[in-house]
Amino acid sequence: RAPAGAGEPIGCLATTFTFQPGLFEEQCLARFLQVDSDPQREELAYLLEREANLGKAYAGVLVDRSQAGVEHSLRWDVLSVHIPRGKQHAKISLLAWENCVRVIVSSANLTEQGYRSNQEVTIAIDGNLDGTDQRLVADAVQFLESLIDFVPSGEGESPQKKRATAFLGQVKLLIQDWP
User: Fold this and answer.
1) Is the pLDDT of residue 10 over 90?
2) Could you write out the DSSP letters of every residue in 126-161?
3) Secondary structure of the chain: what % helix, strand, coil (to 5)?
4) By C-alpha distance, which of 103, 116, 90, 107 is closest to 22?
5) How far apart are CA 151 and CA 40, in angstroms?
6) Which residue has the higher pLDDT, 97 or 116?
7) Listed residue (124, 140, 133) closest to 175, CA to CA
């Protein structure tokens, strides 16, 4: 959830190896976007609220290509990462609101098991107008930009890569004058 005084959501970009879009959308993304309705009990209200909130904020997940062929909303991006002779196994999330940036580093995949039953390690670091570790946020942004480079797009830049890169640019601008 957003810390007090965080403001409106700007966007989030996460990485994972294995991925369950339902968990990401109904738990992680809904909390980030401050969706109040419950998708299990108020399906239509949830869909309307989610769509309205996603219209204002970016959301994307960088997933190893072996796990990326999953169904998801057309309102958020799944970017398939292809690392030659390797796997995209990192778990890092960057969440940005108007007045706060959060970097989350975890051992948990974006799956029900990773978030509900496995023993995992996670650390969340917030930066805001009161103070920010600019180097840490810059390192997270740089890492995410390097992963985006491993997303195949055919000829030219894909719209998904453009949106993810634009979000990271927004985060850089947001924190540039923070102490």
Assistant:
1) yes
2) EEETTB--HHHHHHHHHHHHHHHTTS--SSS--HHH
3) 35, 25, 40
4) 116
5) 33
6) 97
7) 133
